[in-house]
C-alpha cells in the first residue's frame, strides 16, 4: 500500500455507489475519469463498455458469494483481509486490515482501517491515502427500501429494490441490512479529515438522502 501513497496527488476521482440513482445519470462520462467501484458494480461493466479504475469490497457475504466474479476482474482490487479464506489472491489484489477498536479515519491505509459500516467509507480512506484532491460521490443513495435491525443477515426473496439492478442482491442472495447511523458517523469523520487537509468530498448523487457532504450537480462536473 505504501507504493500507492500520494501517487494521485492533486487529481480528482469518483466513488461510485450502487444505488438506483445510477440509472438517472450518464455514466459514460466517467470513461476517462479515475473511479472506484464497489461490491457488485461489475454487473454494469458490460453495459458501460469499460471498468472502474479500482475495485473495493469488504463484506464477507459479498466476497464469499461473488469470489469468482471478483477474481476475474482485471483491475486493482482492495479487499478486507478477513475475507481471504473465501478468495484465492491474484497479483492485482491488496488486502486491508480492519480495526475493531472504534471509529477512526485512516489517512494511511497501510495500518488498520475502520469500515464505518459501509464500503464507501473504506473507498474514501483509500482515495485519501492515494492523495486525491477532490472526491465525488455518485450513486450513494443512503436509502433502503428493505428494513430491519442494522447488520442483520437476510436472504433476498426476490428482485433487489435497493440497488441499480434487480439481480444485484437477487433472489437467494444473503446480505446484511445497512447501518445508516454508523455510516453517517463515518462520513462526518471523512469530511473532517478531507477538509483539514485542504481537500474536499462532494456528493453528486441524484436524489440521495445523505446530507453530510456538500451537494453538486453531476452534469456540472464535465
Task: Explain what you see.
- There is one protein chain.
- The chain is an alpha/beta fold and 222 residues long.
- The protein has one domain.
- Helix content is 20%, strand content 18%.
- The protein contains five helices and ten strands, in the order ββαβααβββαβββαβ.
- The longest helix has 17 residues.
- It is globular.
- It starts with 11 loop residues before the first strand and ends in a 19-residue tail after the last strand.
Question: What key phrases describe this protein's structure?
Answer:
222 residues, alpha/beta, eight-stranded parallel sheet, two-stranded antiparallel sheet, 5 helices
Topology:
Layout: E1 12-16, E2 35-38, H1 45-48, E3 54-57, H2 60-65, H3 67-72, E4 77-80, E5 93-98, E6 112-113, H4 119-130, E7 134-138, E8 153-155, E9 174-176, H5 180-196, E10 200-203
Helix pairs in contact: 4-5
Oligomer: single chain
Count the domains: 1
Query: Could you say which structural class the secondary elements and strand pairing correspond to?
Result: alpha/beta
Shape: globular
> How many strand segments?
10
Order of helices and strands: EEHEHHEEEHEEEHE
Can you list the strand order of the major beta sheet? Answer: 6-5-4-3-2-1-7-10
Model regions low in confidence, pLDDT < 50 over at least 5 residues: none
Main sheet makeup: 8 strands, parallel
Percent in helix: 10-25%
Termini Cα gap: 31 Å
Q: What is the residue-mean pLDDT, rounded to a whole number?
A: 96
Number of helices: 5
Strand content: 15-25%
Radius of gyration: 16 Å
